Amino acid sequence: MKILGIEIILDKCTGCGLCVKVCPFAAVKILNKKAEIEANCTLCGSCLEVCKFDAIVIERPKLSDKNLSEYKNVWIFVEIRENELKKVSLELASKAREIADTLGEKVGAVILGEKAKHLCDEIAAYGVDIAYIVENKNLSEYNTSNYTGILTGLILKYKPNIVLFPATHLGRDLAPRVAASLEVGLTADCTGLSIKDGLLLQTRPAFGGNIMADIISPNVRPQMATTRPNVMKIQKPDHSRKAEIISIPIELDPKALKIIIKEVVKTTKAGVKSLDEADIIISGGRGMGSAENFKILEDLAKTINGVVGASRAAVDAGWRPRTNQVGQSGKTVSPKIYIACGISGKIQHQVGMKSSDTIIAINTDREAPIFDIADCGIIGDLNEIIPALNEELKKNLCKN
Amino acid sequence: MKLIACIKQVPDTTEVKVDPKTHTLIRDGVPSILNPYDQFAIEECVRIRDQIGDCSVSVLTMGPPQARSALMRCLALGADEAILISDKAFAGSDTWATAYTLSLAIKKIGFFDIVFCGQQAIDGDTAQVGPELAQQLGIPQVTYVEKIEIDNKNKLTINKQTEDGYQILEAKLPLLLTLLPPTSFQPEHPPMSSILKAKRKPFNIWDVETLGGDKSRFGLDGSFTQVIKTYTPPKRGECELIEDNPKEAAKKLSKILCKNEALTKR
Amino acid sequence: MVDYRFTEEQELFRESMKEFCASEIVPKTEKLTEVRRMPKEIIKALAKFELLGLIIDPEYGGLGTDVITAGIAAEELARADPSCSIPVLFLVGTSWGHVIDKYGTEEAKKEILPKAINGEQIIGIATTESDIGSDLGSMKTKISKKGDKYIINGEKMYISGVAEAMEYGGGHVTLAKMTPDKGTRGMCLFYLPLKDTKGITPTYVEDIGREAISCGGFDINNVEIPKHYLLGEENKGFYCVHEGYELARGLIALVCAGAASKALENGIAYIKERKAFGRHIGKYEGIQFKLAENHVRIQALRELGYKALWTYDQEIQGKASRFDVSMAIAMAKSVASIWASEAINDVMQWQGAFGYTKECEDQKAWRAVRSFTLAEGSTEIMKLIIARELLGKEFLAYR
User: Into how many domains does chain B fold?
Assistant: First the structure.
């Protein structure tokens, strides 16, 4: 009955089945009137908390006594787009600064690109102490194998304590590759990062956002995580700060690549912020009624500098491109303000937006599930409310 | 040629509810399903196999004995052989340990041309096992794959989703793909004849002994990350409902929005 | 002892069935009841998902599964289509497809079954007449031999799927009298194609429920059918028809269980939300008692239904007698409609005035389920069968 890490104490277990009920992963069953743990157990501890008979014990491996102290400093991977810093890079720098201050360590930033030096001052303003620059014309477009090789090499050489990546398409492609090659842990899509007992405490949603998990990587270094865009606060920049710049020369053979980019197609208009980066998102759903009607959302977006998103229903109806889609099969966003217009808010949509700071819902159906998670709800016809709201906001924002 | 699909059985997270009072997870009666991303991966895998001809699909999963039903479904969807990697020693595996275990199984199969994975699983949403597995197998990867075409010289053309559109890539074998179903994707539901056929296809169960490898790298011992606590996220505050004529409602909402720092800090 | 688990194939089938219903049936049910016809696309969708030949011999395009698998399909279809129209099409086609498969001539099977299985044609059942229902022995429709053909005269009434057979093609397994003085021992069962058949004149009636499948009758005026359409032997039709009826009755038990269990689920969701006198109505004992009673009844009905179909399978394998089948089937069917409609009625009651509006989904199920106290053998006949098996033949009623 004993398996690695978790044990049922048979004398104490009454087979009551409470643990079966609470297990989020269906990893407990009752066999011969006793609880039994299945192989898909993640040792999350839910069962431990509910057991009335203290019949479940989880033994976590002891902290390694390997000398981990030679690993120092908090690194971030800086993602750039069209030669500029992505907003998430500023978020990472700000967070890394906070963590490094707690630990009494420095913040390092790794910047890869055809040209990268011009970004050092800007990222330094957000708290970076050392910028590791790798410039090469073959790095202008992201490529998994080149980027993995360079990152792995730098980490092995400089031994950072913590490395943070953005949980973007790029970061989620790169970070696991680097983690696997270094044989270290990686926590995906964190919404919270802090230091607890000297370790990086990584908080992330799981189970479609229904549960949160606190995760540590105690025995190996660096501790690595990807961080969800738009969640970490950007600190006030200090433009007097300068970073030490370490340039690493590199030679790359483009012929060695096994995967070649043939064509890059952009379906979002140039100059328009992507959903992932937007502070304000105004999304339309089935209730919009037509593609043309999204015009009223676009007008409102112009007024408040927002980006227009859509529910799956609106995308399926062909009203919006699928790059606009928020939700389980689309994008996960967490803007400061999310305005859901004519979106009923099924769980599949909620998963993609429920970590937004403020949620506003406009819907004619008062029973719509979107109101369960909204901070503010308006029951009414969006066709009348949105234009009226736009006018109001124009007035009020001019005043300020 | 040989194609391998890695799949996972997951609780249907869209069926999970949170008790409004105790704020705990209600998972009574939540069915276990084939991860929807993996359903797309397996359908594409089978489609590519049929196009190539003289090619077989092995589907594998690491999971408890009950994960058999997810594999049976994959067989019904057209896979040729299933492998269930099941052992209590795998409990507590994080993404690295999972990828390690899968990599051993794939090495045991011996040869392959493409490994298909779902972009992510709906219970964990990490999207990490695919790339970590590719790294351990020492092969290139393409993530966020929306579309695959293969020509008669086994050259792959791939549409990869990006944040602002997509890329068209050209790739050589072998490699690993993680697939993202397009929004228009309608999963196939296997009819009874496919289910009856599935029952006659090879089904293997491999445990720690079968896999070999370094035992200290499985399960919790082999995991670099540890979950120390899980809890339901704090409930959002009550929803402030505005019911008024459109003009008044807009006024009230405008006031609320104007107080928000996203608008004040512009 | 007893193993209540479904086989792995059956479990996988149910899972697939649920998905099929969710994507192909549920989105269409609202529109479905607007016309009194089963849309051709629905029949094609059922055929594409291989539902129309589940238990038919693979030689004629079927899958050769057990009868319990058909029960799973019936239950899930009823959960998806509250009007029970699709379940009716399914159970009639399945039951009389089975009778053709078992008693049809080789020629007839090759001609009829593949087309029914791929959804091109439908199969119905026609025994009832304007004033003849349970008392089949008094039937007026006559069949006589003429060379290598049969000639039929008479009329059939309250028959499901007449319009579909007339328009899309297909026909009805029909019962008629050959030897007038021999009662039920003088009847023939045969396949009667309706579309383009000279001498068939349809009439239509409107059922109060099951709106998506037609109901009507047809006059049969000197209609000729080829000899190979006879099912079983001459004058043995009454016995052959019962094998179809028993299968249909077993499937009906699961249709009722499916429709009622879905309604109860709707009801549970409702009473957890609706408030009256300051609390959720689910907190009131009066509602909880009803909920519990109905749940137990519907679960019991479900088990009676599957037990009946299991017995039917056992008989096919030679491990049970026809009397065992009659008893198990009659038990399930005798309570199916009544328990189900009472459960659904309670769910409507919980919903207050809304429950009596056409917007309430459950009323469709209520009107549909009501039909099964009559269809395929009335509740009263079921009780007579049970009593016959308990008391012995010497106590046969009405003799």
Answer: 1
